Known about the structure:
It is globular and about 75 Å long. The protein folds into two domains: 2-83, Sandwich (Immunoglobulin-like), CATH 2.60.40; 91-351, Rossmann fold. An eight-stranded mixed sheet has the order 8-9-11-10-12-13-14-15, with helices on both faces. It has helices at residues 137-145, 169-183, 185-188, 202-211, 249-253, 262-270, 297-309, 335-351, and strands at residues 2-6, 14-21, 28-33, 42-44, 49-54, 64-70, 76-83, 91-95, 106-110, 119-123, 149-153, 195-200, 234-238, 284-289, 314-319. Helices cover 23% and strands 24% of the residues. By secondary structure, it is α/β, with parallel strands linked by helices.
Amino acid sequence: MIAIAPSGPPTRAGVPVRVTVTGFPAERVELRVDRRDGPPLGTDSSEPYDFTVPREYLGAGSHTRVAEARGPGGARHDVAELTMPASLPGCHTVTYTPPTAPNPYLANLCVPASPRDVGIVLVHGGGGTRGSRAGEDAWSRRYLEAGYVTLSIDYFLFDDTTPAPVYPEPERDVKSAIQYLRRNASNVGIDPDRIVVQGSSAGARLSAEMLVSPDDPYFDGPERWPGVSDREDGLIAFYGPYDGAQAEARRYYGGGRRSPDPAVQDRRARANSVANAADASGPALLFQGDQDERVPVGQMTAFADALRAAGQDVEAHVVAGGGHGYDNPRSGLTPLGEQSARQALAWLAAHFPS
């Protein structure tokens, strides 16, 4: 039997894969792309059989990679096929949480052919109860075109059956994503000290909280990578509730605003990025639509004012005519979303120049 699977995160060269052979001797293993005839991409006569699918083949054709095991005399014993993700060229699905995490989570890692040295973690919205990494595909595509590495993540979501408190499970997951990108910085061609987090709605709340809690041991746990900083070097946030407002807040924090339990009050205080703005670890770029019926503009202005009062670098934009989700990242950037994208790229170029 022969099997083929990714063996690590994508690099600037391509996606590493490993082929395993059991049940018969293999004189050599060959890796081919999208066909079983023609010359192989690589031939390996050692064990384990390790190859790299070149970056130019990612997202092309049928997305199928073929490994063949050949015995003495070149007779083909078996064939295995690997289906690569067909979302965006240059993108690959990875598990970003460490092996110790009780709930492993996936992310879409997108690496341009000639990346800039900045990585961006994308955190979707959905109130903490819904949404997925696919919701940020339009932003992944826009940043990929501009030369930026992105990591769009899934993270812990809760429902009516989730025990209280939910906090800080989602927070730990986002910190783990920052750590994942930092520990793989050399593989994807970025500077480990240039990691920006971008979030929308509930994802913006989480992203802002990451900015004001760098390397806080409170968040230590099996979801975290040991010995790697979770510092966020910059924030891009869209229509977020920065004071910690959260759907089903009693379940999320384990109690109400007037709870006598000090642990509840501590959780709520930690989630309030407005109150903790003085601890920000990098500059911030904030967007808020003036027609948002879910999150008032005052959330953004309060956070921006708190950052400025603490001497932090912040740029805030009220988007005329923009409602909640005005950039519409799932189906493609709207004209207002493209306007914000141009501002975000200009901000990145100014704060993280090549």
